[in-house]
Each structure stands twice: as C-alpha cells, then as structure tokens.
C-alpha cells in the first residue's frame, strides 16, 4: 500500500512504474508524466472550477500532493508522447488520434478520465495498481521450502 504513495521525483518512482508496466521497452527512455497535469492542481487553476472551489472537501482532495503527485497519477511516456501531452488534459490527450493509449491501458474506465472526476480516477487507478502490484510481486501461496527427496540436482556426499 505504501509503495503507491511514492511521489514524483523519488528515486523509487521510475523503478516502481516499470514494475507495474513491464511492457514498456526497457531500452527506450521514458519520462515520468502526471496523467492529470500538475498545473491543474494549482490553487489558481482550482479556484476557477466551481465543483472544486465550492466544496472544501473537493478542494482539499485536489490540492493534496498525496493524490496528484503520487503513483496513481503518474505514468511512463516515451519522449514524443511526453512532448505531445505536456499540460493537455488527460481526456483531451486520450482523444487525439495520434495517441495509442486508451483509458483501459491506464487501468481506468472511460467515465473517470475527466478532471472533474479526479477523486474517482485516483481511487480506481490506485486499486487497480495495488492489485497489479500484488499479482506481480507478492506470492499468494506459500512455497514449500523443505528439502525434497526427489531433487536430483543436488549431490549427496557420504563418508
């Protein structure tokens, strides 16, 4: 659970994103990108949005770097993808025909890519990433570590 709280700029961030998305070509250079652009979480930007400005609870959620600056809002993009995205909203960027990403590739539903649904996006993606992490890293069954009598790879010496 705490791994998903890793923030942008931490040394472990890139390694964790590669672990979560191993399909990324390891020889290619990837940039760590905020899916919902970080400038959208500035106080100035948020104050223009009625659904945030009129709700102290929403404002608190959107302003919190623990939400917008952690693994659930981060992804690896190659150089050209990162340049094309820049500060474009996630929904707008995903709708570009030149983009080959879909919401499902980012582990979220189509309904939750709007910035107005950032809390739902964050929770949905965090849960999906947690499950992916559990499936890739943690064993769900205990491995028997007792020696096997059937193991023919080991040499047995007797005196």
TrEMBL record:
UniProt superkingdom: Bacteria
Protein name, entry field: HNH nuclease domain-containing protein
